[in-house]
Amino acid sequence: MGERNVNELVKKCKASGLKITPQRVAIYKEVLHSSEHPSAESIYKAVKGTHPNISFDTVNRTLLTFAEIGLIQIVEGSGDVRRFDPNTDRHHHFRCMECGAIIDFDHKKYDHLDIPKEIQEKFIVKKIAVVIEGICHRCRKGL
Q1: Which pLDDT belongs to residue 105?
Q2: Domain extents in the chain
């Protein structure tokens, strides 16, 4: 992932006609500095310490707006809560079915999957993202 910082937030918000608010900056910083793919709930808990009047709804809507303008990606899988990823470069995910960890990985063959003809005829494919689910190395050691 390329070097990301608040300048990216400012640039994308201005291009989208959005105000740069202290709450938006705090939410973006939390996503950027998370070592995991955080949920809206975990971001909310972290930001609430410095912004006690912020609501969960504001955090959730802000994260969805960030995804719409291309600042972050949404990672969903198997009925889990929505998680967010600051890495907007092309990549894929491995999701542990035991602990819920999400791990980024690159695989060039997945970047260029053949799209079935019936899908190409009916839809416009804009993104290919593979999610592999299984047991991570930490949980596997515990089995």
Answers
A1: 95
A2: 6-75, 90-141
